[in-house]
């Protein structure tokens, strides 16, 4: 689960970086950047947080 979360964060980071070479349109870049941010936030706030809480130190 942690690997999936880390991969989502990396993919979310790569989407805006790749958007720089895909198009010159600012609207398309903005949409791709917002998509990348949402993917990264999903990976951090949902997937990684869920994996962390599953094995939290206070639960043992």
Kindly provide the radius of gyration, computed on alpha-carbon positions and rounded to a whole number of angstroms.
Answer: 15 Å
Helix segment count? 2
Biggest sheet overview: none
**Total domains, how many?**
1
What would you call the shape? elongated
Q: Low-confidence stretches at least 5 residues in length (pLDDT < 50)?
A: none
In N-to-C order, the SSE pattern is HH
What is the average per-residue confidence, as pLDDT, rounded to a whole number?
93
From the N-terminal CA to the C-terminal CA, the straight-line distance is: 19 Å
Helix % is over 70%
- The number of strands is 0
Share of β-strand residues: under 5%
Output the structural class. mainly alpha
Explain what the structure shows.
This protein is an all-alpha fold. It has two helices and no strands. It has one domain. Helix 1 runs antiparallel to helix 2 (26-54). The longest helix has 29 residues, at 26-54. The two termini are 19 Å apart.
Element layout with pairings:
Blueprint: H1 2-22, H2 26-54
Helix pairs in contact: 1-2
Output the keywords:
single chain, elongated, 60 residues
Provide a compact summary of the structure.
The protein contains two helices and no strands. With 60 residues, it is mainly α.
């Amino acid at each position: 689960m942690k690997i999936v979360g880390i991969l989502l964060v990396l993919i979310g980071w790569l989407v805006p970086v790749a958007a720089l070479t895909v198009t010159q349109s600012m609207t398309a870049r903005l949409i791709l950047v917002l998509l990348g941010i949402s993917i990264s936030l999903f990976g951090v706030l949902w997937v990684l947080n869920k994996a962390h809480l599953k094995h939290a130190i206070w639960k043992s």
